[in-house]
Amino acid sequence: PRLLSQFFFADEKVTRVVAEINGLNAELDPQQYLVLLNQLHLSQAHLLAVLERIMEECIPTQRHSRDYLVKFPEELLVDNLGNHMLFAAECLLAGTFLEVEEMDGVQLRTQARNLLCSLELVRTVLREQSLSQPGSYPEPVRAVLIQFDWLFAEFELRWGPGLGCWGAGACARAEGASQSPPLSSYVSSLVAVKSPEEIYRQQEIVVLFCETVERALRLGYLTQEMIDGYEPLLMFTIPR
């Protein structure tokens, strides 16, 4: 099926589950409430996955760079990171500052509000487009997708003094704000993101590791079969 058709049905599922949750008394039926919450989580994740595919098809060259993801700790780079971000935005907008300091939460609320409003606009525009011309992406559709993509990326991580910058656009914004206080972001409020120096050191270690393996293969210290089989003794020896 076409992506817009998939989006329409995914959006319908989210809307239906939300309506069921709103009509349920959680205190009287807590078990059903938990079931519906799980359904909502799954349906929202599916909706975001379809939306991601639409953006890749519609605006592949106009999307915000995701190079900043290398700054994130590995444990944050999970499949449902986007769903977690939107849930965090909803909590922030409601005044519930999950996992972040209250002052950071207050600063992030404007970003959260803009992101969620943009998502609602995207849902409305894509629903209408799926019913009228499901095979095309006119300029108004592309515009709202670009806006959502950039707002989403900036909510994940915005650059400020001391955080470094990635990509020409990000560097330009950081240079223009060199005298302003650091910009808040959800991820940087949760954990310490990697600095450019840490990333460069990590890359140097990777290069050194690769060169060591190439030299060992060339000198006959080990075989390709040993590497392909992830022989435990070998995996401990090479870094040393």
UniProtKB/TrEMBL annotation:
PANTHER family: FYVE-TYPE DOMAIN-CONTAINING PROTEIN, LATERAL SIGNALING TARGET PROTEIN 2 HOMOLOG
Domain of life: Eukaryota
InterPro entries cross-referenced by the UniProt entry: LST-2
GO cellular component assignments: early endosome membrane
Protein name: LST2 protein
